[in-house]
Amino acid sequence: MARFSVSCLQILDEKGNVDKKLEPEISKDDLLELYRLMALAREFDGRMLKLQRQGRMGTFGPGSGQEAAHIVPTFMMTDRDWFVGAFREAGARLVRGETMERALLLYNGCEEGNERVGNNLTLPMSIIVGSQTLHAVGLAYSLKYRKIKDAAVVPT
Questions:
Q1: Tens of pLDDT along 74-133?
Q2: Segment holding 46, helix H or strand E
Q3: Between 3.90.1150.10, 3.40.50.1970, 3.40.50.970, 1.20.58.220, what CATH number should domain 28-155 receive?
Q4: S-S: 77 plus which of 36, 40, 81, 83, CB 3.0-4.6 Å?
Q5: 52, exposed or middle or buried, with CB in 10 Å at 0-12, 13-18, 19+?
């Protein structure tokens, strides 16, 4: 019979104690900025959910509680990296330079909210669950084909 195992890297235990050997080296300023971005994303998410529930905004998938999963990777990205997100990553889009106004336009069905600004390598938001991974694979293959080695594709 086949045996399977899954390795696990755990920096925090169930009581919140940090394994100092595995703690990432993040400056205090970056930690504060990450916290600020996550708090902003949660507040923005809550406001959009209220608008959607009032019938004042269209399709919206809340992402509350998932902020760190998409804000931290986008915070660490460079200008050469591609972001390929789904509909629950409004916070990551804020990190990549999207404004709240553009996000509200998009969630209200105005395509102007999906326009790329400047040289921002962020794909339009994907509403179809899981389709962003296919787009990310295509982008990654394109980078490999063109022999671009100093860029990454980050799907969320």
A1: 999 999 999 998 888 889 999 998 889 988 888 888 888 877 776 689 988 878 888 899
A2: helix 28-53
A3: 3.40.50.970
A4: 81
A5: middle
